[in-house]
Amino acid sequence: MLALTAGLLVAFGSTPTATAATVVPCVVSYSGTGKTIEPDPDAGGPKLTSAVIPVPASSNVLDVDVTYRITHRNAAKVRVDLLRTATVRNILQPVVAGSGAQVAPLTWDDEATATYTAASLAGTYKPKDPLSEMDGTALGGNWYLYIYNYDTVAATLTSWSIRVSRSVCDADGDGAEDRAVDNCVGMDNPDQIDLDNDGRGNPCDDDLDGDGVANNSDNCLTLSNPDQADADADGLGDPCDGDGDGDGVVHADNCPTVANADQADTDGDAAGNACDLDDDGDGKADPQDVCPVLGGATPSGCPSVDRSVKLRYKATKRALTGRLSADVAGCVAKQRVSVWQVRKGKDRRIDRVRTSASGAFKTKPGRRTGKFYATVPLRVVPGAAECAAAKSRKTRVRR
Question: Would you tell me which of 118, 157, 263, 375 could form a disulfide with 99, CB atoms 3.0–4.6 Å apart?
Answer without folding.
Answer: 118
